[in-house]
Design brief:
The protein is an alpha/beta fold. Helix content is 57%, strand content 12%. Helix 1 crosses helix 9 and helix 4 (61-71) crosses helix 5. The longest helix has 17 residues, at 117-133.
């Protein structure tokens, strides 16, 4: 099972990815983790990424695709994988499709968690207020202003990936505002699990 999880920050992608890992026995692949691992391992693509990062630049789509290409060849990804946080742009989605085709692979599905973004912001504000009231530090991701900035970035840059996958027939939309177990059940139903 080769999957992509889409949805704005706070939609529950991480929670659902953990459950999909258990259901299908496939790894969740984060581009950030893969990038750090490739750099640490000193792979050819990791060395390219390291040089770019050390110069203060952003890692190119070609380098990210190369890192994904290397990672999905590892033994734990032979049965499939879950991409979370990638692709972030249509150009990345197109490059991913080409790379998978070159490997004789295809995506099985792209699962988009649809959520009410105003409700997400309200949830984050409440969580931050509860943490403050309990005398606990507010997690950086739970800072309402940081969260709103991440949401704006998602809407500007990444939300356009869903229509791309709709055009390929791979997109499966799930109501992410349901209870966690109901979201899991809906995902499993569309994936035939």
């Amino acid at each position: 099972m080769r999957l992509i999880l889409l949805g704005p920050p706070g939609a529950g992608k991480g929670t659902q990815a953990t459950r999909l890992v258990e259901t299908f026995g496939i790894p969740q692949l984060s581009t950030g983790d893969m990038l750090r691992a490739a750099v640490a391992a000193g792979t050819p693509i990791g060395l390219k990424a390291k040089a770019v990062m050390e110069s203060g630049g952003l890692v190119s789509d070609d380098i990210v695709i190369g890192i994904v290409a290397d990672r999905i060849e590892e033994a734990d990804a032979k049965k499939g994988f879950i991409l979370d946080g990638f692709p972030r742009t249509v150009a990345q989605a197109e490059a991913l499709d080409v790379m998978l085709k070159d490997k004789g692979m295809v995506l099985d599905a792209v699962v988009e968690l649809e959520v009410d973004q105003a409700a997400l912001v309200h949830r984050i504000v409440n969580r931050a207020e509860e943490a403050k009231a309990a005398g606990q530090p507010v997690r950086k991701d739970d800072d309402p202003e940081v969260f709103k900035t991440r949401l704006e970035s998602y809407n500007r840059d990444t939300a356009i990936v869903a229509p791309y996958y709709k055009g390929t027939g791979k997109l499966k939309k799930i109501d992410g505002m349901q209870q966690i177990d109901a979201v899991t059940a809906a995902i499993n139903a569309v994936l035939g699990a």
